[in-house]
Amino acid sequence: MSIEQEQSRTDLLSDEVKAEIDQWVARFPPEGIQSASLQSLMAVQHANGGWVSTELMDAVADYLGIPRVSIYEVATFYSMIETEPVGRHSVSICTNISCMLRGADDLVAHVEKRLGCRRGETTADGRIFLKMEEECLAACRCAPMMQVDHVYYTDLTPERVDEILDALE
Ligand code: FES
User: Fold this and answer.
1) Distance between CA atoms of residues 73 and 124, nearest Å
2) What is the 3-state secondary structure (H, E, C) of the chain?
3) Which atom of ligand 1 is nearest to the CA of 104?
4) Which atom from ligand 1 is nearest to the alpha carbon of 97?
5) What average pLDDT does the structure give for the chain?
6) What is the distance between the alpha carbons of residues 168 and 88, in angstroms, rounded to a whole number?
7) Which of 145, 155, 156 is the pocket-test mutation for ligand 1 (most atoms within 8 Å of CB)?
8) pLDDT of residue 65 exceeding 70
9) Residue-level pLDDT at 4
10) I need a labelling partner for 35 at 20 to 30 A (CA). Which of 64, 112, 139, 169 fits?
11) Cα separations in angstroms, 105 against 28, 82, 90, 97, 166
């Protein structure tokens, strides 16, 4: 069955998500609509509890009018898109060179112990997803750093990390 013959899944997207996608689409020329893929997936992910199912990827592709495989490629390439269910909050501790030299590995060990889960896992209460690994997030000057729900936190210490994580509901 061709993509044209498959049933459109755009009804899986809320009006709010469609409006956000429209805002991103408007930033690109019509022939560059594919450039809105990543932000469209981010909008869907945000509305779907932190991850994007295959059906939702299809919905984004159908809404943008591009091949579904193009969206699968984006969703599986970028580390900020989760394709499996995860905890309510996403925590990524950068372990690349600058952060590593300033104690990132110790921070990871501290967080794993405190949360009772390893990287790549979600806490038993579903509160926090500790991402597997994160490459340099371009905040080396303020290493060590981490992202929580895609917001940067820098110049971290174990005590500061505890404060940040404890505030997550
Ligand atoms: S190495 Fe961690 S932000 Fe660059």
Assistant:
1) 30
2) CCCCCCCCCHHHCCHHHHHHHHHHHCCCCHHHHHHHHHHHHHHHHHHCCCCCCHHHHHHHHHHHCCCHHHHHHHHHHCCCCCCCCCCCEEEEEECCHHHHHCCHHHHHHHHHHHHCCCCCEECCCCCEEECCCECCCCCHHHCCCEEECCEEECCCCHHHHHHHHHCCC
3) 2
4) 1
5) 93
6) 9
7) 145
8) yes
9) 52
10) 139
11) 40, 23, 18, 10, 20
pLDDT digits (tens, 9 = 90+) for 17-62: 999 999 999 999 999 999 999 999 999 999 998 999 999 999 999 9
d(CA 38, ligand 1 centre) in Å: 22
Q: Which two tokens stand for residue 3?
A: 């993509």
pTM of the model: 0.80
Reported as a pLDDT band with limits 50, 70 and 90, residue 5 is: low
Residue 8 C-alpha to ligand 1 middle, in angstroms?
Answer: 41
